[in-house]
């Protein structure tokens, strides 16, 4: 009896096409980013910190929505009201110059957010690029870059900021952001370098190299996407750190200077009178603490969602 051969039809998408799910929809491939975002949306801490940060961003972009007065207008300060307490028309009271603390606190949000965002972007870009190059090159280039980064990494951010800002002279949000990025890039560099070294020897990189992929394509198409999760986590947490660092430098008199508005400057002006007029210190300090706490909380939940080791 001759053997009967039965030919089975090949799917239109090819023999490797995935079978549809029972509901007829194609199966979705699992992704770290998709799973992490799904996990984030279920965490109350993410919703709370995200709402607070959203409010802070609106305050920084459009402070006029929350106060009709401008701290830079003529007649804004009145020495007759110096250190007066909160009233119905002035919820936070007055500072030593007779300026409305509520208006200054609202407008001070902009400088703090600018310093945090700009410093984070610069440190992430600088540390990420240098870390990827060092991890890919290896050898003597990696050793030289690592030794240079250790010099900056060993320098405390406040002491280094005091030293560099004293040499720069002019102090504004952009110089403070630049100084903080110079001191903060080694942290991102070390993380990126370690992730690149850990990923460049994986099988998928060897397979891409065997198929003839260029080094540039391997770096940006295969290695970089698998190193971004820890960088996003540490950058999110660094936002709060840089905002606190700016306030500390301004408090010490070496950061943002008047007539610019900074929560650190407001705290510095009120420190000598906090026993008799605590409102002048509590409100800007409370705004600073709430902002730093919101970004730290966001960084914690992002780490829990995107770190595979914690799953």
Please give a structural write-up:
Helix 6 (173-199) packs antiparallel against helix 9 and helix 9 (228-251) runs antiparallel to helix 11. 63% of the residues lie in helices and 0% in strands. The chain contains eleven helices and no strands. It has a single domain (41-70, 93-310), classed as MetI-like (MetI-like fold). The radius of gyration is 26 Å and the shape is elongated. It has helices at 32-40, 44-61, 101-137, 139-153, 157-168, 173-199, 203-210, 215-223, 228-251, 263-270, 279-306. The chain has 311 residues and is mostly helical. Its main location: membrane. Residues 1-27 are annotated as: Disordered.
Ends apart, CA distance between termini: 58 Å
What number of domains?
Answer: 1
Integer-rounded radius of gyration: 26 Å
| Low-confidence blocks of residues | 1-22, 25-30
Assign the CATH superfamily. Answer: MetI-like
CATH class: Mainly Alpha
3D shape: elongated
CATH fold-level topology: MetI-like fold
Mean of residue pLDDT values: 84
Oligomer: single chain
The total count of strands amounts to 0
For the sheet with most strands, the description reads: none
In what range is the share of β-strand residues?
under 5%
Any idea what the CATH architecture is? Orthogonal Bundle
